[in-house]
Every structure is written in structure tokens, then in C-alpha cells.
Amino acid sequence: MNKNTRSMVIWWLIIAGIVVFGIYQLFNRRDPVYQLATSDFHQYIKQGPDLFDGYLVLDEEWVEGRFRAESLNQIRAEILSTVPPQEQETHLPPKWEGEFRASRDTIDDYDIQAKLDVSEIDYTVKPPSKFSQGWLILGTTIVPLLIFLGLMIFLSRQMQGSGNRALSFGKSRARLHSETQKKITFEDVAGVDEAKEALEEVIEFLKAPKKFERLGGRIPKGVLLMGPPGTGKTMLAQAVAGEAEVPFYSISGSDFVEMFVGVGASRVRDLFETGKKNAPCIIFIDELDAVGRHRGAGIGGGHDEREQTLNQLLVEMQGFDASEGVILIAATNRPDVLDPALLRPGRFDRQIVVDLPDVRGREAILNVHTKEPFKLAEDVNLGILAKATPGFSGADLENMANEAALLAARCDKEHIDMLCFDEAKDRVLMGPERRSLVISDEERRVTAYHEAGHALMLHFVPESDPNYKCTIVPRGRALGVTAKLPLEERHNMSRKRLLAHIIFALGGRVAEEIIFGEQTTGAQNDFEQATSLARRMVTQWGMSHMGPLTFGRRDEQVFLGKELAVHQDYSEKTAIEIDKAVHDIVTECYKKAYDILETNLDGLKLLADALLERETLVTEDIDEILGPRPQLPAQTIV
Ligand code: ADP
Ligand code: MG
Ligand code: ZN
Q1: Which helix or strand (DSSP H or E) is residue 458 part of?
Q2: Ramachandran region of residue 552, left (φ > 0), alpha (ψ -120 to 50) or beta?
Q3: Is 451 an annotated catalytic residue?
Q4: Do 487 and 610 share a domain, yes or no?
Q5: Which ligand is nearest to the CA of 233?
Q6: Which of 336, 353, 370 is the last residue of a domain?
Q7: Which of 122, 174, 483, 573 could staple 251 via S-S, CB 3.0–4.6 A?
Q8: Centroid of ligand 1 to alpha carbon of 254 (angstroms)
Q9: Is residue 13 part of a domain?
Q10: Nearest ligand, CA 286
């Protein structure tokens, strides 16, 4: 039975059960008749046969009968005279119809029949019907059991996620990459040349292991790809499969993690068995951190299952020999949380960093992702786009190219032009434009001067990167954006450059103050950037009068770039000094920004007017309005 028919059968069983139960209820329904208290009924029996009009039936559960009307009225009168008024309601038999029923639950069978006989009252006994008894058993036992069973099966399948694994818990779910899938090769992965080179070696090992062992060398067992998300690790592994022309088993670390203890470990065993059987081959474990986390790191227990899985993985890695032709590749973006045992020689002893691409890498990736069937317009310059997208991962770039194509299609353009790419870039960075946002003229003016202030800083501070684009079209949470164009990739920033960035960040607010004499909330993000840079200049980079020291011990995540916690390892007095140093840097930059704006007030006004009129200005527009950008003297380090 395959997965679909099985779940269909279960559903039908459940539905059938419900229907049967409903029918049973229907058959057993009784018309509403007056329900007599059992003790009262015993009283009535004593009155003798006159009271009953001949209809009295006993079945298993109930006594049903009818009183004679005259006698009934007599009884009513009697009861009315003896029972206190507040209880009359419950003791009075019905007024108009003499029909009643009483439960036999509390009446002893023999007792009631004997009593009826004594009082010479006629009655009939209804034999239990075979039919209804059958239904009764079915309804009360089998049907609920079926429903329960169905639910159990259904739930247990739910718990295991999708797929038919009811009978194959311990099997690894490694998928064999078949030829029918679109083959990914090294050509599709751009800009990660070092990683490719290292993997090239792996492929050679697989093809001719003897060549490398000839001189006594040991072939590495495991290769670990590590790097931020979206840099192409999964893709690289798939490309290895495409290049190596050996079977490629891929599984995700989270596939090992299951509800049931021991399942993960047996999956690992199974995975390696499959690998050994099919050697030479590649086993790829994506997102290794899901299983490979530091043992004993779980707080409050409950991680035994994962530890077992990890232990099994270590055991298996120990147990196989790469010369058999099985090579393990794994990928992770959290190498910091991996159990150190995984990284020891003999395990993942090759570690390849797949980092965010640099300018050339980004250009190459863009090239890959704008190939046919993309139709690029003449004006598209991928080099400039690569420069304007520092910090973008391969996945971001792919996303951007795709957005651009969609935008071009929406505008019914024949080709994807630079405008589309620009818009797509901003979308990926900040979300789509919000042209529908209602902005008052006053607000627009403030935004225009704010952005013009930023742009002016980029233009007149020679150490900073030049302008790229300046716009007052709201986007995401921002009312306007001024972007700069880094001319080259930087791995090292000079103090002057950092100051230039702080000045740039403050420029917006300063312009608002000079023109409107008022402060608005729009500069929060600018201040955050300025403050954080200034603080790091003081505490990490030794760029203040505090001297060349670092302050505060940091727990940083290697690739996420996030600081988890800073431990204060200095005195309160130093803390005060640090705050003062940060403050000094920001104030100094603020003054600088003020000076630049005051001496270029005309430029500021021209720029703001142009923004109000055209909404978006690019480098050339700004240069035209403000004149050529001042140049740095040659050989200045910025
Ligand atoms: P990771 O596994 O590192 O998180 P992926 O391999 O899943 O990243 O990459 C996600 C997508 O991003 C890929 O499908 C691909 O389209 C694109 N991509 C990432 N890096 C590159 C690259 N170096 N060259 C080409 N495309 C890339
Ligand atoms: Mg991945
Ligand atoms: Zn701003």
C-alpha cells in the first residue's frame, strides 16, 4: 500500500466509524415522554390496576406506560394536597397525557415484575432485540476502538513529519542525486575559487585514490564547508556531485533529529552502510550543526537523542577508511557550535571557508545569474552593481537578479535595464518602495533636506565613498535614502574613513537643524550607526585618547556577525571615560558636518530643491549640482 492509499483508508475508517455511531444513536432515540421518578412509580404500582390503562411495557432499561386519565386527576389532587408547593412540580404526573417512562436502573428486575404481579397489573416484557444489541456492542466498543486506532496512526505519522516512514524509522533518508535532476557543476558556482580548488582535490581523491596513497599520505575523510547562509555551500556540494560522476548521497542534519530515541543513531549507521556499499561515493550532510552541536550543551537534559546521534556519527567516521572511496562532505553556518570532536584529525579534517563574495566574486555571481534566458539592456553594468552591493551573499544577488527581471516584466520592458536592477537592489536591502504612503508637503521638505544633507557630506568629505543615489521615495521604514558607492572592497578601515562615515550619518540631522531649526525623529537610525561606530573606535580599535586597548570581552558569532553579549572587564571609572570618548568623537563629527553644511548652504538648497522636483538623484546629477568632488591628495590612506 502506498502512502496515499494508506492515509485514504484511515480517513474512510474514521468517517465510517462516525456514521455508524450516528446511526446507532438514531435507532436508540426515544420520544420525549414524561419521566417518572422511580420511587414514585413504585408508589403508583401500589394503587392497583385501575390506575393503568393497559399499556405497560418493560424493556431492558425502561418501563413505559400510560395512566388512565380519571385516575390520574385523582392522583394529582392527592399529591397536591400532600406535597409542599415548591416540590409539586417534580412529583406531579403530566396533566394531559398519561404517558410516562421510568428508568429501570434503580429498580430490581424481579422486584418490579413481582410487584406488578401482586398488584395484578398487566404488563408486557419486550425481549431485547438482537439487532439493537448488535449495534450496541458495535457502537460502544468496536467503533470507538477503530476511531482511536485511526487517530493513533494518524498522529504518529504526523509526528514524524511528512512521508511514509511508519515502517522505516531507522532508515537514513539520504537522497541519491540522479542524472534526471538539473546537473549543477562548478561553472554554476561563481566567486568561491578557493573552495572550488579544495573540492577539486576531493574529486581527484575519489577518482584515483591510489595516486595519493602511493607516498604514504592519508586521504582526508571529511570536508567541512563553513560560511554564512546563502554563500553557496549546498550548491558547491551539489556541484561536486555533478563533477565527480560518482553517486552522491545527500541528507540534511535535521533529518537525523527525530521524536524517537535511537532513530537518529540508526539512521547514521544506515547512511554509512549505504555509502560503503556504493563506494566510491560522496556523502553530504547539510546543516551539520543540527546534529553536531557541542555535547552536553543542552540545558535541562532531553538532548540525549542528539548526543547519541552525534556519537554514532563520530563512531562511523572513525570506522571507515577514505581509501574505500567514501568521502564525507558537510556544510554548516555555525561552526562555532560544533562539537570539537567533529573537527579533530580523522574526522572533518579539511575545513573550507565559504565566505561572502568580494567585488569580483559578486560580479561573477551576477554574471552566472543573468545568463540566458535573462535579457539585459545595454546600460547594465554588472561591475557597478557588484560594487554597490557590499555584504550581499550569493543568494541575495540571485534574489536581486530575479527581482530585476520581474520588475522589468511588470513594466513591459523588452530588456532588464539598470533602473530595474537598482530598484531590485533596494528592494532586497530595504523592501519595496512605498509610493502610496501619504506624506505631507512639510514632511517631504524635511526629508529632502535631510537626504540632501547626507548627500552633501558624501560629496564634500573626500575620505568618504562618493554618492551613488539619493532619493526621497519612501521605502521600507525609511522616508528617504542616500546610498554611497564603495569604490573598492575594504578589509581595513582608517580612522579618517570611519569619521567620514559618522559625519555622513549625522549630515541629515544637521541639515534639518540648520534649515528648520527643529529636530525630528527621522534620524534615529543615523544616530545608531554613528554611535555604534564611535563606540567601536573607542573600545575595539584603539582610536581615541583611551589608547590602544580593547574594552569588554565579546561573545561573537563567527558568521552571523552578531554580538551575543559583552562582558564588562573594566572599572566603572573606565566606563565613564569610554562614554566620554564616544561622546567626544560624535560631537567632533557633528561640528564638522555643521561646518561643511554652513559653508555650502547654497548647494544644500539646490540639492533639496532638485530632490523635491525629481525625487531621485544619481551621482551625475549630484556632481552637476554641486560641482566636481574635491579630491584627496595622492598617497593618502583612507
Ligand atoms: P548555503 O547552503 O550556503 O546557505 P545555497 O547553496 O543554498 O547557500 O545557495 C542559495 C542560492 O544562492 C543558490 O541556489 C544560488 O542560486 C545562489 N548562490 C549562492 N552562492 C552562489 C555562488 N557562489 N554562485 C552562484 N550562485 C550562488
Ligand atoms: Mg545550505
Ligand atoms: Zn538619515
Answers
A1: helix 441-460
A2: left
A3: yes
A4: yes
A5: 1
A6: 353
A7: 174
A8: 19
A9: no
A10: 2
One domain, residues 413 and 536: no
CATH number at residue 184: 3.40.50.300
Centroid of ligand 3 to alpha carbon of 590 (angstroms): 14
Give start and end residues of each alpha helix (H) in 171-303: 193-207, 209-213, 233-244, 263-277, 289-292
Who lines ligand 1 at CB under 6 A?
A: 189-192, 229-235, 331, 365, 368, 394-395, 398
Residue 179 confidence (pLDDT): 47
Asked, for residue 516, whether it belongs to a domain, the answer is yes
Which residue CA neighbors atom 5 of ligand 1 most closely? 232
Residue 566: domain span:
441-626
CATH assignment at residue 380: 1.10.8.60
Identified catalytic residue from 305, 451, 512, 513: 451
Judge if 472 and 501 occupy the same domain: yes
Question: Which atom from ligand 1 is nearest to the alpha carbon of 331?
Answer: 2
Domain count within the chain: 4
Cα–ligand 3 centroid distance for 421 (angstroms) = 23
SS (H, E, C) 559-622: CCCCEEEEECCCCHHHHHHHHHHHHHHHHHHHHHHHHHHHHCHHHHHHHHHHHHHHCEEEHHHH
Span 599-626, pLDDT tens digits: 999 999 999 999 999 888 988 899 999 9
Residue 446: pLDDT band by 50, 70, 90 thresholds?
A: very high
In this structure, the answer to whether residues 478 and 562 fall within a common structural domain is: yes
Percent of the residues in the chain that have a pLDDT greater than 90, as a whole number: 20
Pairing outcome for strands 467-471 and 281-286: unpaired
- Separation of 587 CA from ligand 3 center, angstroms? 17
CB 474 within 8 A of CB 437: yes
- Per-residue pLDDT of 162-199, as tens digits, reads 444 444 555 666 666 554 466 788 888 988 888 888 88
In this structure, the answer to whether residues 413 and 496 fall within a common structural domain is no
List the one residue out of 611, 250, 238, 588 whose CA is nearest residue 453.
611
pLDDT at 489: 64
301 within some domain? yes
